[in-house]
């Protein structure tokens, strides 16, 4: 997976919180990564020869029609999107977790960068290696992942280098959303969150999404509010 976050080494005290009280409820943790739990995804870009490059990743967030993706600077994906900005982002469900493991130590860079050589092996056809199927897109050259129930076509608008140079913050505009019909209530165009179970990545482990515990009033598929 991409963009390992640094471990937390200390947390400042302050704000009037009693230190003894705080110590009784929490301990100082030193996680080796900071992936607290977000959906994993598969990003596909286009190589210079027109072939697809598929990679597994997890660092991302969304605002409106824009996605911000965290991607390794030395990966083939970063090379591709700097020159060919059309990409797809396909979100796997829980059953597809083995495919992400198969991709986790493969790279489309040839030769493999020195800093990646100990962990990565070059593979040109990563769809076959992952046992996944490319599906043609409508608006970009990069294919989607057929086995994924939720797929985005997008165009990269800006790449911003990270502070240490090891990653890019990639801003991509979503142009089209493809969904399994089972996820979309008829006549709504919305994704029903009760039917959608993304593969969640937390501290290097994979999980299915848990049970619903609530919703925001702004949800277009939420039930009527309960009046006390």
From TrEMBL:
Location of the Flavin reductase like domain: 37-207
SUPFAM superfamilies on file: FMN-binding split barrel
Origin superkingdom: Bacteria
InterPro entries for this protein: Flavin_Rdtase-like_dom, Flavoredoxin, Split_barrel_FMN-bd
Keyword annotations: Flavoprotein
Cofactor requirement: FMN
One Pfam family recorded for the sequence: Flavin_Reduct
Family classification: Belongs to the flavoredoxin family.
Protein name, UniProt field: Flavin reductase family protein
Upper taxonomic lineage: Bacteria, Bacillati, Actinomycetota, Actinomycetes, Micrococcales
């Amino acid at each position: 997976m991409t963009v390992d976050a640094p471990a937390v080494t200390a947390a400042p005290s302050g704000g009037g919180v009693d230190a003894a009280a705080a110590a009784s409820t929490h301990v100082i943790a030193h996680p080796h990564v900071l992936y607290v739990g977000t959906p994993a995804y598969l990003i596909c870009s286009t190589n210079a020869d027109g072939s697809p490059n598929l990679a597994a990743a997890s660092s991302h967030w969304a605002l409106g029609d824009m996605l911000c993706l965290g991607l390794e600077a030395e990966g083939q994906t970063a090379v591709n999107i700097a020159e060919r900005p059309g990409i797809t982002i396909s979100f796997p469900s829980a059953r597809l977790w083995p495919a992400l493991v198969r991709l986790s130590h493969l790279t489309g860079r040839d030769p493999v960068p020195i800093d990646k050589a100990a962990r990565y092996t070059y593979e040109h056809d990563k769809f076959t290696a992952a046992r996944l199927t490319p599906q043609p897109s409508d608006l970009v050259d990069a294919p989607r992942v057929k086995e994924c129930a939720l797929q985005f076509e997008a165009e990269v608008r800006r790449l911003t280098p990270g502070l240490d140079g090891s990653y890019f913050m990639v801003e991509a505009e979503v142009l089209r959303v493809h969904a399994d019909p089972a996820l979309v209530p008829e006549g709504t165009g919305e994704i029903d969150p009760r039917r959608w179970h993304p593969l969640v990545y937390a501290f290097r482990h994979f999980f299915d999404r848990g049970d619903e515990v609530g919703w925001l009033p702004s949800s277009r598929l939420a039930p009527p509010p309960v009046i006390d």
